[in-house]
Amino acid sequence: MTYDPSPSYRHHPPPPPPPSYPPRSHTHRAPHRAPRRDPLGHHSDLRILRGAYRWQRRTATLTALGYFTLFLVLSAYAPGLMTGTAVAGLPTGLLLALAQLPVTWLAIALYEYTARRRVDPLADRIRQEAALDARREAGR
């Protein structure tokens, strides 16, 4: 068996350098334009908005479902705790079931708070940029 040092693929030389053009004369100037931005669909603000909205949904959902799951687990695996008396002769399970409504309200309030604080400002900024882009395109 012999060793062949030549590559098994065909070698292509690098492409020639681009031709050099003469420098522009200073008599012709291009009109001043705003710098080009990426199209709105690929804008980083949209990725940030999706992340903020995803965080908002997860937080609110896990608040409500987490409490309900805890209630179900305690009902299934700790019946002694759930049937025990807590306050004024009421069973603990009944009090925890009644607490589900305030926890759901808390999840809704958390959802609204995060919407006002994180999601809405981003959505407003993207909406304003989209309107500005539309006006620029209409003016061309």
List keywords for this structure.
140 residues; mainly alpha; two-stranded antiparallel sheet; 4 helices; elongated
SSE string, helix = H, strand = E?
Answer: HHEEHH
Q: What is the general shape?
A: elongated
Q: How many beta-strand elements? A: 2
Strand order of the largest sheet: 1-2
> What is the overall number of helices?
4
Helix content: 55-70%
Q: Overall mean pLDDT score?
A: 80
Estimated share of beta-strand residues: under 5%
Structural class, please?
mainly alpha
Taking Cα atoms only, what radius of gyration do you get, to the nearest Å? 32 Å
Query: Low-confidence spans: pLDDT under 50, at least 5 residues?
Result: none
Largest sheet: 2 strands, antiparallel
Distance between the termini: 69 Å
Overview of this protein structure:
The protein is mainly alpha-helical. The chain is 61% helix and 4% strand. A two-stranded antiparallel ribbon has the order 1-2. β1 and β2 form a beta hairpin. α1 (44-77) packs antiparallel against α4. It is elongated and about 95 Å long. 1% of the residues are buried.
Task: Give the structure's gist in a few sentences.
The chain is mainly alpha-helical.
Strand and helix map with partners:
Layout: H1 44-77, H2 79-83, E1 85-87, E2 90-91, H3 92-98, H4 100-139
Antiparallel strand pairs: 1-2
Helix pairs in contact: 1-4
